[in-house]
Amino acid sequence: MYEKVGVDRIANLVERHARPGLPIHPQQVLAAARREEAAARRANGWLADHVVAVAGTMAFFHFLWLLIAGWALWQTGFLHNRGFDPYPYSFLFFILGGIMQSLFVPTMLTASNRAAERDRIKDEADHRAWSHLYEVNDAQLELLRSLAARLEALEQRKND
């Protein structure tokens, strides 16, 4: 559901989940759209969203900093370069540079695409909700204008 979709599909999604006569609530539309999604896609999307949410925090940054410092201390301080790794920093940089990048980049892109799609759906629902409110506001203004005109006519009759 969160793949790139056109404006027509988003409008159709919002229209399908809008309740007649009530303003459109974007969170309800998003929840209904999630329920339509396949279970595997929901699980993958949930995992991507949460991995990116954790990886984008300072706690994760501090964890990586402690991991690198611990690795360096373990390999050079305690083992004096006689550990299982004859090149003590190559494995560390292979893990951090290669594997983590190959895992995080697609995960971040997936989470970014999902967030953009949620934003598009929310924007469409917001647009429809605000349009409904403007229509109600216009009807109320027209009613007030007609009441003002009637009051003005009554006032003129009274003065004549």
UniProtKB/TrEMBL annotation:
Superkingdom of this protein's organism: Bacteria
Coiled-coil regions, chain positions: none
Name of a matching Pfam family: DUF1003
Keyword Transmembrane assigned: yes
Key word Transmembrane present: yes
InterPro entries xrefs: DUF1003
Keywords: Membrane, Transmembrane, Transmembrane helix
TM annotation in the entry: 51-74, 86-111
Protein name per UniProt: DUF1003 domain-containing protein
Origin species: Tepidiforma flava
